[in-house]
Amino acid sequence: MADLRPLKGRKLGDRRVVVDRPHARYFRYLGPGVLEAKLEAQAPRTSGQRRMALLRAVLFGRPLSSAADLAERLPIWKALPVFSSDVMSSVAYATGAMMLILASAGTENYKYVLGLSVVVVALLVIVTFSYRQTIRAYPSGGGSYIVAHANLGVIAGLVAAGSLLTDYVLTVSVSVSSGVQALYSAFPALEPIAVPLIALSILLVMVVNLRGLRESGTLFASPTYIFIGSMLLLIGVGIFESLTGQLHHVTDVVPLSGLATENMGVFLLCKAFADGCSAMTGTEAVANGVPAFQPVEWKNAQKTMIIMATLLGIMFLGTSFLAVNIGAHPANDLITNTPGGGESVLSQVGRTVFGGRGPLYYILQFATMGILILAANTSFADFPRLSSILARDGFFPRQFSLRGERLAFNSGIVALSLVSIALVVAFNGSTDRLIGLYAIGVFTSFTLSQSGMVKHWFVERGDGWRRSALINGVGAAVTAIVVVVIAISKFDQGVWMIIIVVPILVALMLFIKHEYDLEGRGLQVQPDVVFGVPHRRQRVVVAAQSMTRAVVQAVRVGQTMGEEVQLVHVTLDHAEGENFRERVERQLPGARVVLVESPYRALVRPFVRYLEVSQAEDPERLTIVLLPEHLARHWWDRILYNQNVHRIREALVGRKDFVVLDTPYRREI
């Protein structure tokens, strides 16, 4: 009850009162029967909980209210590093990947690199304008899953989602592996510990993302802009040196040998083009993350998309031009069997253009390492968001839809980290091995998204719908061709695994949806049904294995539910059973004991059968079964205790005439 206390020091007629509501420290009263929990309501109570809360605050920051979501939105200058670090960082390895494929027919075929790069950039322009259309049509977030699901059906949407999920995992693995390669290109002594460094880097990015989207954008902005500045300076200086005849060939690099095993032809060009398309992975991240932008969200997302595509096109073409003109040779870990296999193409370009391993070279390498590791942040921004949408629609476990203390989707962030680390370990941190799996997933999602947009425009038929449908139709056709090229040309390099994994993911998501639908139908309450107060006689039964404090506690609980509490004791020995009965009657007056002797030494089934038979004698009665359950304090407690309790619960839960309740206890010593 509220305590009304007059305020002293006021004049007569100016009396006011302070409403001192109970528990006001923990709750804010919003209206009759409506309370809002304050931060103090979830404050830790024990010393151990306080220590954990302090550690979480240091690692992740203080908890944020749901009302702070708008303040966590990103301006363009922060959104650019968050959503485009993946696609821009690909210039560090895409050129080298193309060169490695062309080298299989001889290093003289590097002359095709620049032409292939132009084709990739032309494809980038088409996809960029297609996704600008998607952003305008779906201002609340237009990822491939949402567009394909809404316009092409459930299966198409899940295929797009499965393709994107695999691509996000590979993005983390490839980009961080390439980032660590940039580090040991500058410091070769670090190469033997590459895999642990990759795993540690993924965990660091995970921790930063658990602090929230806005804070990760702030932390990642500087490395991204340093990389962009370094790359533009590198390309500008390199082109100037080329025009003035000052651009030298790279030195101290051993040309690839033993690779000229194929004939140059269209198929090999297609394989090189497929690897070059890895430069476009992450292009749709902006369309996925529209809700993360500051208002007006879709307009800011469109601007960010144009800036991203422009920077990527300049840096990718510039890197390819310089790599060919200095005579760079790609690292090849498929031959050396080491992560990265040596110095990256970008490192060779940097030390050649900047005149050796000077300050500008090391700035470039550290910035490259930073942007590649932070490129994983694009996946950390989009994988949890896509997982939350799938969970909201019932295709993913529900915990993926929940935000953590910092308004981040913690379950998705942690799951992405663990799967990516497992993949890095399985492939020994090899960029060349991982990149073979890379592009088909994202281009599959591109194709489904753009195809869905074509149908969207034909259905909506708003202003300029024909032009919009044409743009998205061209995007769908071109990306579909790329999917076919990648699937055929890179099938033996691991693409077959993605072709298998995506259908498995789709089947798994359909299974989860089926289970949730079954649960929903089983628990559904019709809105027009009024439930009256039940009037049903009940009996209380305690499963009593021995005379312990746990049984006494269960009996005391049962006595609050009914006048008579029945202890059912299954015994293997008549004398032991009679001793149990004598103790109960002496120590627990009013409790009734039923002994069930089991000469065949079964414990659980005779207990359940007795309940069934006695219930059949009086079907109108409700039986409440109390199960004393040991609270586990150690992992081994889960093995040593409660096995019979679990079996009884499984046998009775869900039956209409039985209610099963646990009465947990914890031993004092």
Describe the structure.
This protein has helices spanning 47-60, 76-89, 94-102, 113-137, 144-152, 154-186, 194-210, 213-243, 266-276, 285-288, 297-326, 333-336, 345-353, 359-392, 410-426, 431-435, 439-460, 465-489, 495-523, 549-559, 574-587, 604-617, 637-640, 643-652, and strands at 3-6, 17-20, 27-31, 34-37, 538-543, 565-571, 592-597, 622-630, 658-665. With 669 residues, it is α/β, with parallel strands linked by helices. It has three domains: 1-40, no CATH class; 77-516, Amino acid/polyamine transporter I; 538-665, HUPs (Rossmann fold), CATH 3.40.50. Strands 7-6-5-8-9 form a five-stranded parallel β-sheet, sandwiched between helices. Strand 3 (27-31) and strand 4 (34-37) form a beta hairpin. Helix 7 (194-210) packs across helix 14 (359-392) and helix 9 crosses helix 18. The two termini are 40 Å apart.
Features:
Amino acid/polyamine transporter I, single chain, Rossmann fold, 669 residues, alpha/beta
Please indicate the count of domains: 3
The total of helices stands at: 24
Q: Compute the average pLDDT.
A: 80
Kindly report how far apart the N and C termini lie: 40 Å
Name of the CATH architecture of the largest domain: Up-down Bundle
Question: Regions with pLDDT < 50 over 5+ consecutive residues?
Answer: 333-341
Shape: elongated
* Largest beta sheet: strand ordering: 7-6-5-8-9
Total number of strands: 9
Structural class: alpha/beta
